[in-house]
Amino acid sequence: xxFGSLWLPVVVSTVVVWLLxxxxxxxxxxxxxxxRKLPNEDAVAAALGGDTPPGLYVIPYCVDAASMKxxxxxxxxxxxxxALIGVLRKGTPQMGKTLVQWLLFCFLVSFTIGYLARHxxxxxxxxxxxxxxxxxxxxxxxxxxxxxxxxxxxxxWSNSLRHLIDSTVYALxxxxxxxxxxxx
Length: 184
Description:
Layout: H1 7-27, H2 41-48, E1 55-59, H3 71-79, E2 83-87, H4 95-120, H5 127-143, H6 145-152, H7 157-181
Antiparallel strand pairs: 1-2
């Protein structure tokens, strides 16, 4: 089966997931709990200063594992705070750029689903088999990164669980689109 026969489900599922994400984040608004305000936001902003370049920072900073044995570093960890700080560019967030990046990510997931489905299924495959394969790959593609964020970047597990709810919706939509548009 040529990959060209899968462009329609790839593109349609990309757009459907992108639109569903807008509904989940703007209309339902349960993601408001993803972020919290620092009690001393102005003091933290002043301490970081306006010239901190964008990037991911850690407090306390250690050059290597050996420096974590240094008593002064151990004291910093004990005293706290221990934090990962993501710093964005100054200015109002550029939602257009972020939404385009999200659209491209959705396309990447759908393209990968099409690629893997093409190599595991045949034209005219059973509808529920197409849905099961496409939905499973979509759930992994959209959802499993949340676990990594909770493990390594201190993203609260509750945020990751909300993200998995979104991923389930995206996976179901993707499964339905691929099952509906799968070549006969």
